[in-house]
Amino acid sequence: MSTVQSQGSDTAVGRGAVRPLAGLYSGNARAVISRGLMATKSSNWLVMLSGFFEPVLFLLSMGIGLGALVGTVTGPDGSPISYAAYIAPALLATSAMNGAVYDSTWNVFFKMNFAKLYQGMLYTSLGPLDVALGEIFLALLRGLLYATGFTAVMGLMGLVTTPWALLMIPVSVVIAFGFASFGMAITSFMKTFQQMDWINFVMLPMFLFSATFYPLSVYPEPIQWLIQAMPLWHGVELLRQLSVGAVGLGMLGHLAYYLVMIVLGLVLTTARLRKLFLR
Q1: d(CA 88, CA 98)
Q2: Is the dihedral of CA 173, 177, 178, 180 positive or negative?
């Protein structure tokens, strides 16, 4: 009798060990993804398409127009490159950021506060981690499409000169992952449209001052420290180095920055969704 009870107890413990995230994750994030893809197909595809053209237009206007005046600049490996080749990786990082932030902030804000979509999802077997992973995957898919298309445009313009540049596509997805997970976490605290305006207030200077159009060395040293603390700068540096094949161990520090963003964002998003809808 005691042997049977012991075996039953061991089995129960084993089940609990297999599902340490019980109540948070049901393993069905694909349901959230399927719903998002259907919504995009029916109404949001024009918005997604417009987001692709923004960095391309910047590249054409700044890279070709201003580039004719600037001439060549010093690349990450110390060799001279065209101004278009200098700003193209930075615009790719910005495109990944913008696509991920739009999906994980304004899109999530509407679903959370007006459509009450997450509340309905969490009344089912879905857990908050399912919702977080599903929404972030949709943002990553958008980032992947943007990165692939923009890299193709770079290739057509003759700005892809090394096989290392192909790694810009998966690295752009990592950049999008960091911004999407952190963006969704921040959005979970937002209650009004006025509060959401702070997102644009932060993104615009980050876009302009993350060594996107000018080398970091042109700024005063205190400003350089501030720029290096911003997430977009790490993405710009990563993609700029890959674009010319200047691969080194320093890239691991940039990737670690985004890994921290991803983990913190997922943990905070899951905790916030649970607190808001599973009381």
Answers
A1: 15
A2: positive
Residue 177 CA to residue 213 CA, distance in Å, equals 24
Q: Where are the beta strands (DSSP E) in the chain?
A: 72-74, 80-82
- List of residues 6+ apart from 232 with CB closer than 8 A: 93, 94, 97, 206, 207, 210, 212
Query: With 70 as the cut, is the pLDDT of residue 9 above it?
Result: no
Residue 201 and residue 152: Cα distance in Å, rounded?
31
Instruction: With cut-offs at 50, 70 and 90, classify the pLDDT of residue 88.
Output: very high
Nearest C-alpha neighbor of 96 from the set 27, 178, 24, 161: 178
What are φ and ψ of residue 257, in 5° steps?
A: -60, -45
Measured distance CA(95)–CA(144) in Å, rounded: 10
Residues 157-180 pLDDT 10s: 989 889 999 999 999 999 999 999
Largest CA distance in the chain: 88
The mean pLDDT of 136-158, rounded to a whole number, is 87
188-211 exposure pattern, b = at least 16 Cβ within 10 A, e = fewer: bebeeeeebeebeeebeebbebbb
What whole-number distance in Å separates Cα of residue 145 and Cα of residue 137? Answer: 12
